[in-house]
Amino acid sequence: xxxxxxxxxxxxxxxxxxxxxxxxxxxxxxxxxxxxxxxxxxxxxxxxxxxxxxxxxxxxxxxxxxxxxxxxxxxxxxxxxxxxxxxxxxxxxxxxxxxxxxxxxxxxxxxxxxxxxxxxxxxxxxxxxxxxxxxxxxxxxxxxxxxxxxxxxxxxxxxxxxxxxxxxxxxxxxxxxxxxxxxxxxxxxxxxxxxxxxxxxxxxxxxxxxxxxxxxxxxxxxxxxxxxxxxxxxxxxxxxxxxxxxxxxxxxxxxxxxxxxxxxxxxxxxxxxxxxxxxxxxxxxxxxxxx
Length: 291
Prior knowledge:
By secondary structure, the protein is mainly α. The chain has helices spanning 11-38, 60-66, 69-100, 108-117, 125-134, 152-163, 167-175, 180-191, 193-208, 212-217, 226-234, 254-285. Pfam families: BPD_transp_1.
């Protein structure tokens, strides 16, 4: 018979856990406030009142903002940039990282050096803007996708991940008649699924939260991303951009519109993240094969 010995809680442990619980509770207060205001009925909303729970629950603010053209356009823009950008990010990052693992490729060290240099030096905002302008991508969704097809940090991490794949597997596949491309798709990609899932999450969150690039490259309000629209609502306090579908008399208070838009902007990532959480941990911690 085996006995499990558990450590007895000390007074210091109770104090530490209590402090951590209090800090966590205070950290959650802003989220409770945002949710509470977004679900508050416009008729019972009182400005500058702190709400933990709505006095009267209502989905009117959500129905209102989901009926506006501006929010729908910005949501569709963000979804397009996120989906297309994430797919291209994963494709370019993993194919280039796989190429950098091959020591026999001519110029491999040069390309690897160029990648590493960009970890320390950046061209800057103005050169990037001029490049995007000169290739005709201004006011285009592609201005948010092409300039960031991959990045040095992702390439280095993915390359290190792929270096852990035993070369004997690739050699065996080539003996069976596989080409380099077939080896990549049939051997490397399946073994890299945890890393692919983790970086899919990284890239998707990055594109979904695109703000600065959209701010300098997109001037057409019909192509705004969600983050630009929320900035217009929250920071500048201008709700006129979303009041295009319903009459102003039917519009809820600006504060409830702000909070509802923030919740709707966070919701897709909050829904997707739990499904990729286990792969996120595997992609960071595990190699493909344990020797």
